[in-house]
Design brief:
Number of strands: 0
Number of domains: 1
Strand content: under 5%
Number of helices: 5
CATH superfamily: Cytochrome c/b562
CATH architecture: Up-down Bundle
Largest sheet: none
Distance between the termini: 57 Å
Order of helices and strands: HHHHH
Radius of gyration: 23 Å
CATH class: Mainly Alpha
Shape: elongated
Structural class: mainly alpha
Mean pLDDT: 87
Length: about 160
């Protein structure tokens, strides 16, 4: 009976370790995927901002359909519900590749306000009549990006 109890305890302990390791691995997988997803969101924001910036600088010809598409995409990306991507515990230093400062989760209403500023600035650009109007609207877009990055993005490591 004593040998059976020892064997049962060993099996239970082993099962517990395997279960814990599996949970940790799956959690790491989820957090790494969350960071990868928000990197993709940031790349898309940068891509559409780049189109608008190129038009504003005259590097790309003004095209109202292109401006509206890029501004609409920028607005919609800013309005994405980030609950699934911006997970607490995925700050810089906790997850490889993350540059998010831990402060963002303790001040999330400010983060939301900054992202809302970006969505509103992009929305205001929709219908820009010419290159000059695109250029004039870029200040608000760039300013909203800068405000969030200065407050909540850590340095490259």
């Amino acid at each position: 009976m004593k040998k059976m109890t020892k064997t049962a305890m060993t099996l239970a302990l082993g099962l517990g370790l395997v279960t814990s390791a599996s949970f940790a691995a799956s959690h790491a997988s989820v957090t790494n995927k969350a960071v990868a997803a928000r990197h993709a969101q940031m790349q898309m924001l940068a891509y559409h901002t780049g189109i608008l910036g190129s038009i504003a600088k005259g590097e790309m010809e003004y095209n109202s359909a292109m401006v509206d598409a890029a501004a609409t995409n920028l607005r919609d990306l800013a309005k994405l519900d980030g609950t699934t991507m911006w997970l607490p515990g995925t700050e810089q230093g906790a997850v490889d590749g993350s540059r998010a400062k831990a402060e963002m989760w303790s001040n999330f209403p400010d983060v939301i306000a900054k992202v809302t500023d970006l969505a509103n600035a992009a929305d205001a650009m929709i219908g820009a009549a010419d290159q000059a109007a695109v250029g004039a609207a870029m200040g608000a877009i760039g300013g909203s990006c800068k405000a969030c990055h200065e407050a909540y993005r850590g340095p490259k490591t």
